[in-house]
């Protein structure tokens, strides 16, 4: 059955290019998602960098990164999912920590339904790559057993340590990248992705990987959905790290806010240079 996009919510644009939108603007459901793709165009790497790393995360009002079930599926909704699909379609590679792969049951990725044309028009390769960061090499069978991979997908790239690689016997050797003895050197890992032409990186978490990416100043952008829930409990925040990050509290810059049904979908730049202005912003804002 063709994807009509009719079940997806419309999104109100509240802030664009860092400024409040004056006249009402709404991104209506659209199976091809052309307008949303323009709003979320994945930037090219900044000067002096090989990749643009955009993270996409969701948090509740009280800062929880998961619901009671221990996965983010308990706190997201249709608006978040609409943007999530487009961000995937616009990325060369989705980067994820092994904890999230294990908790959320990741498999090799397929292009979101109905977005293959958008992906082609954006200049991306037909297949979406998945890259998994793991110190231990302890990955579930749906990843390590290539025979179980869905048709049309490519085996994930595993970014790991020497010990991790030793555990992955039988996995295609050209899909295993060792960038450290005891821990994964994330800069070397990102460089290895760039060497394969994978420069638009979408980091989907989880909190430990995001903490390490932020700590190493590898994060360029954060797309953060705030879900209108208060869940309490012992859930992690979207970034966990052993100690406070040492960036001196430099503030992120607000790029964009969309809204639907109480969910706020924000885009933040973590770089000093402005993101390219949205081409269609025109006189829609002050
Ligand atoms: N709210 C959201 O947007 C969101 C997004 C994603 C996930 N989550 C939730 O977050 C939870 C998982 O949290 P998590 O912190 O365990 O997730 P994670 O960051 O995905 O996984 C941590 C694991 O990833 C590997 N890893 C991360 N950084 C590494 C580094 N620098 N070097 C080497 N390996 C590294 C290690 O794997 P090994 O143990 O294999 O060595 C580590 O144990 C789940 O409940 C998931 O549902 C929420």
TrEMBL record:
Signal peptide span: none
Record-linked SUPFAM superfamilies: Dihydrofolate reductase-like
Any one biological process term the GO annotation gives: riboflavin biosynthetic process
Location of the Bacterial bifunctional deaminase-reductase C-terminal domain: 52-244
GO function terms (MF aspect): 5-amino-6-(5-phosphoribosylamino)uracil reductase activity
Entry keywords, A to Z: NADP, Oxidoreductase
PANTHER family referenced in this protein's UniProt entry, alphabetically: 2,5-DIAMINO-6-RIBOSYLAMINO-4(3H)-PYRIMIDINONE 5'-PHOSPHATE REDUCTASE, DIHYDROFOLATE REDUCTASE FAMILY PROTEIN (AFU_ORTHOLOGUE AFUA_8G06820)
Record protein name field: Dihydrofolate reductase family protein
Species whose genome carries this gene: Sanguibacter biliveldensis
């Amino acid at each position: 059955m063709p994807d009509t996009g009719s079940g997806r919510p419309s999104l109100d644009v509240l802030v664009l290019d860092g400024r409040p939108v004056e006249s009402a603007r709404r991104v209506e459901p659209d199976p091809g998602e052309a307008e949303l793709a323009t709003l979320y165009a994945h930037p090219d790497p900044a000067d002096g960098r090989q990749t643009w790393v955009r993270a996409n995360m969701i948090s509740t009002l009280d800062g929880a990164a998961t619901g009671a079930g221990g996965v983010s599926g308990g706190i997201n909704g249709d608006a978040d999912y609409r943007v999530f699909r487009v961000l995937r379609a616009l990325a060369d590679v989705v980067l994820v920590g092994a904890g999230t792969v294990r908790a959320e049951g990741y498999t090799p990725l397929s292009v979101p339904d109905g977005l293959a044309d958008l992906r082609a028009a954006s200049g991306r390769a037909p297949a979406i790559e998945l890259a998994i960061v793991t110190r231990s090499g302890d990955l579930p069978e749906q990843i390590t057993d290539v025979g179980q991979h869905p048709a049309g997908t490519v085996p994930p790239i595993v970014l790991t340590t020497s010990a991790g690689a030793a555990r992955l016997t039988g996995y295609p050797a050209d899909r295993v990248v060792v960038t450290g003895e005891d821990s994964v050197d994330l800069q070397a890992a990102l460089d290895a992705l760039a060497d394969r032409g994978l420069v638009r990186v979408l980091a989907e978490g989880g909190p430990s990987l995001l903490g390490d990416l932020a700590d190493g100043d590898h994060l360029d952008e954060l797309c953060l959905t705030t879900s209108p829930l208060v869940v309490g409990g012992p859930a992690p925040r979207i970034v966990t790290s052993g100690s406070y990050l040492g960036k001196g509290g430099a503030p992120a810059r607000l790029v964009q806010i969309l809204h639907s049904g109480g969910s706020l979908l924000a885009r933040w730049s973590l770089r000093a240079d402005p993101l390219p202005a949205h081409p269609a912003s025109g006189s829609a804002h002050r």
